[in-house]
């Protein structure tokens, strides 16, 4: 975990915006008070140098299990669970051939192996998307199937300790060797992505996913990125995953440029734990106190395609900002708001009204809307995007028409209203990949 650094003397900063960059003036011509600017970026982590060698090393010397090639015999039914199209950043297509290679070394034929896309409640991947997820070579050799959370043949495994009815994919249940893959990073309700999440929500039934995710409204202070041990959602996911009992996992940690920072393989909980430690070291930023103003970018294309995707950056910026402070979010949103129902949740009203509606019919989209509304109600959020200004206002944010001098205008408006002074500010160039910890 790193600390915030002083921003080198600069009158403006360049932030990623879609496929381009946007220049924002930082100088304060609106008043005589000098603002102290800090840079909050992910700590510098060295990418893995010998990627191929490191992947093979982890598969042959994993944590808490036999080497992968020693876990199979000819004729075994093998299922490899992979992340869906929304998580291409973890580069499944790169490491998957190495997993298949080890299985082949152990005596498995390509026909013994099936790849299962952990779609959760997302739409199924098209054939073209399947090809992109697993890579051309593997797509041409091995069967690739989408998980269907509403399939009629899901297997019932009883209930979790929190009362969640557990139903999972039948092929995963019937496999002689079940392998999970994915990527580890901070997650809004699960604490961390990766590991157990490949099963719940990845290959679980619709009602299982809904029941699990609805736990996010219980003990709300414990449902938080980076929290696992007291987080009811994360602990329930752990229960569900252990009921299915996968044999082996292979998880990655990647940076904002898709460089591999580490590989974690072996037993479900041990390999996942090691990966979360790397994620904390790679993306956590220690802050002594919050800032009055946070200027942040989602990180440009493809992370800022939709507002719905950009909420992760907004949430992280909210952790760095004091209540009543200002957040300026730079996110092109060139593909629009996101799921149609996301905007509709804001029609219910403020955070209390959205939460009341959510308790009657929980959806993850609704929960993201709730967290967004909470941040918007606690801070003044200014959005620099391509969205219709009326849509932005309807979701509780302020559209920015002339972004270059937005900081100066915020300071000038605050001075007119006699708002609290803005003395401490920060820039978060990669807010979606930066997690402030206080």
Write the layout of secondary structure elements.
Layout: E1 2-3, E2 5-6, E3 12-17, E4 20-25, E5 36-39, H1 51-60, E6 78-83, H2 92-105, E7 113-118, H3 127-134, H4 136-141, E8 143-146, E9 155-159, E10 165-168, H5 170-174, E11 177-183, E12 186-187, E13 191-192, H6 206-214, H7 232-244, E14 248-254, E15 260-266, H8 268-283, E16 284-286, E17 291-297, H9 307-320, E18 321-330, H10 340-345, H11 351-360, H12 364-378, E19 380-384, H13 389-394, E20 398-399, H14 406-417, E21 424-428, E22 435-437
Parallel strand pairs: 1-16, 5-21, 6-7, 6-11, 7-8, 11-14, 16-22, 17-18, 17-21, 18-19, 19-20
Antiparallel strand pairs: 2-5, 3-4, 9-10, 12-13, 14-15
Helix pairs in contact: 1-2, 9-12, 11-12
Describe the structure.
It is a single chain. The chain is an alpha/beta fold and 438 residues long. It has 2 domains: 2-40 and 287-437, 2-enoyl-CoA Hydratase, Chain A, domain 1, CATH 3.90.226.30; 51-282, Rossmann fold (3-Layer(aba) Sandwich), CATH 3.40.50. The chain has helices spanning 51-60, 92-105, 127-134, 136-141, 170-174, 206-214, 232-244, 268-283, 307-320, 340-345, 351-360, 364-378, 389-394, 406-417; strands at 2-3, 5-6, 12-17, 20-25, 36-39, 78-83, 113-118, 143-146, 155-159, 165-168, 177-183, 186-187, 191-192, 248-254, 260-266, 284-286, 291-297, 321-330, 380-384, 398-399, 424-428, 435-437. Helix 1 packs across helix 2, helix 9 crosses helix 12 and helix 11 (351-360) runs antiparallel to helix 12 (364-378). The strands form 6 sheets. The chain has a 7-stranded mixed sheet, sandwiched between helices. A 6-stranded mixed sheet has the order 8-7-6-11-14-15, sandwiched between helices. Residues 17-220 form the LarA-like N-terminal domain. GO terms for molecular function: lactate racemase activity. It comes from Halarsenatibacter silvermanii. Residues 290-420 form the Lactate racemase C-terminal domain. InterPro entries: LarA-like, LarA-like_C, LarA-like_N, LarA_C, Ni_dep_LarA.
């Amino acid at each position: 975990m790193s600390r915030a650094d002083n921003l080198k003397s600069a009158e403006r900063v360049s932030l990623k915006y879609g496929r381009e960059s946007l220049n924002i003036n930082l100088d304060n011509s609106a008043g005589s008070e000098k603002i102290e600017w800090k840079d909050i970026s992910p700590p510098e982590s060295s990418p893995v140098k010998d990627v191929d060698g490191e992947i093979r090393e982890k598969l042959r010397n994993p944590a808490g299990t036999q080497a992968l090639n020693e876990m199979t015999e000819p004729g075994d039914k093998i299922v490899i669970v992979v992340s869906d199209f929304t998580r291409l950043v973890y580069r499944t297509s790169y490491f998957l051939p190495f997993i298949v290679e080890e299985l082949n070394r152990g005596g498995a034929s390509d026909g013994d192996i099936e790849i299962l896309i952990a779609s959760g409640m997302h739409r199924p991947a098209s054939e073209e998307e399947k090809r992109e997820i697993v890579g051309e070579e593997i797509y041409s050799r091995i069967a690739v199937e989408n998980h269907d959370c509403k399939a009629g043949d899901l297997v019932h495994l009883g209930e979790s300790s929190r009362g969640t009815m557990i139903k999972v994919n039948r092929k995963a249940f019937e496999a002689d060797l079940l392998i999970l893959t994915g990527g580890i990073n901070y997650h809004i309700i699960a604490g961390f992505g990766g590991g157990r999440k490949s099963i719940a929500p990845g290959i679980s039934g619709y009602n299982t996913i809904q029941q699990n995710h609805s736990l996010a409204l219980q003990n709300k202070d414990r449902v938080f990125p980076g929290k696992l041990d007291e987080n009811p959602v994360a602990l329930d996911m752990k229960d569900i995953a252990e009921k299915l009992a996968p044999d082996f996992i292979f998880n990655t940690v990647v940076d904002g440029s898709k460089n591999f920072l580490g590989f974690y393989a072996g037993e479900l909980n041990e390999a996942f734990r090691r990966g979360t430690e790397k994620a904390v070291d790679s993306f956590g930023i220690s802050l002594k106190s919050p800032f009055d103003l946070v200027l942040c970018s989602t990180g440009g294309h493809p992370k800022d395609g939709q507002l719905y995707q950009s909420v992760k950056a907004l949430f992280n910026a909210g952790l760095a900002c004091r209540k009543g402070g200002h957040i300026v979010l730079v996110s092109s949103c060139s593909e629009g708001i996101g799921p149609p129902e996301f905007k509709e949740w804001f029609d219910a009203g403020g955070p209390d009204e959205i939460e009341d509606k959510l308790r009657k019919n929980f959806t993850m989209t609704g929960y993201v809307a709730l967290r967004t509304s909470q941040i918007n109600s606690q801070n003044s959020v200014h959005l620099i995007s391509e969205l219709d200004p009326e849509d932005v206002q309807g979701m509780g944010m302020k559209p920015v028409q002339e972004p270059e001098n937005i900081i100066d205008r915020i300071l000038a408006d605050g001075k007119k209203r006699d708002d609290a002074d803005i003395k401490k500010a920060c820039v978060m160039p990669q807010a979606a990949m930066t997690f402030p910890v206080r």
